């Protein structure tokens, strides 16, 4: 059975940690990541069976609602394995970089949704998933594949992720070795 | 004799470093920490005998005043040993975590005052003292103890620290092991 | 022949990486650095022969213009060796610190220009060149030399760098050992 994930981005850190605790108590989920995010936000990422994840997410949202502490949230029922690996900071293989699709969002939930959307929609692989830190709270998703796949991946993200969160996107056909050596 | 500490948070970095130098020259104090803080602030923390610390603090404040470079300041005459240890990034013992009190402020001076207040007022121990970095300039204080002590600690902070700086607070009774493993 | 450098600070990361790729393809330059900068900016630094650097810079600027993604740019035809070394995070020798000149700008291009200006104008050496990270996107330049040289360096920067970008500046005559040990 495939894993589901959910994430809440909080604007208030003390509330976020309290919610994370309640979320672990509400259902049998894994607390995959709790993280400080620029500038002053905090994210809580959980994973597990869909019913448990939903229940845990709702517990967190209900608790945070009264505190006006939620910036954004996501629920991905059957998340791709590749997204889960990137969330654990998988080291990428520079030799496998072909063309690139790049998407930049102003919150991290959108970045995770885009990453999952792209790998499910097209023959692309994730090579970067920056979520908040060193980006002022923005998400940057980079995937690789042949030209057509990258463009297909970008299009799929544009259809699936709310475009009010998109800051910029780009497609790089056959990136130079200098670029690859510098950005990865 | 117990140590005193003082801190100035500056909005201008060149002014801050100049002040730090004058503060070390004005009295026999220890320059405990000089630090870049998100987003573009700089903090100078000194320690020593109360008379020296006061004199050094005043020197820094006088110099910075003309430059409109001071965001916040603090002076704690007899600071608790535990706060001093946390300022040096003490590793915490996860096995000793009981319930939690969490306070979040929009400046780091308030976070240090809260930490000192809590450990003096209640049977609690500091387990996190985040000051500015990775928090967008906010301070996060987390202490542990039994339920009553944590609530007592939170109340003491609310009485002692200017509440216009408080962003959020929370009390966690018996945090889950999952939470403890994730946040510490 | 002396090396030239150019830098573009971008507000949009996906655009920035696309531009970096085109810049490496437009002329025979070295991609010296690509970097995430607080809060959510991205810088691309190139080096090489002046004609190649100019051509590459123009390619990047033209591409970014339509996207309104450029915050600031610079072109230094014959950059000082010392600036190039600092850009690679040269470790400084604390024993050689004399007096200090400190300049703080609200963008990193201005910081690099100031660093280059100071070492060319006066008998000073760079001891810190903070560019964006941990400074909320600000640049901090610190150089050392005797009193007269430091003041001369500060004056030269004030003449050469657009003063609307200057946040603060300071001159420290014979900094205390405590300051030197703390800030470096």
UniProtKB/TrEMBL annotation, chains A, B, C:
Cellular compartments per GO CC: bacterial microcompartment
Source taxon at top rank: Bacteria
Compartments in which it is found: Bacterial microcompartment
One Pfam family recorded for the sequence: BMC
SUPFAM superfamilies membership: CcmK-like
Keyword flag Ligase: no
Domain spans labelled BMC: 4-88, 99-184
Key words, A-Z: Bacterial microcompartment
Family under the similarity heading: Belongs to the bacterial microcompartments protein family.
PANTHER family named in the record: BACTERIAL MICROCOMPARTMENT SHELL PROTEIN PDUJ, PROPANEDIOL UTILIZATION PROTEIN PDUA
Protein name: Microcompartments protein
Organism: Halanaerobium hydrogeniformans
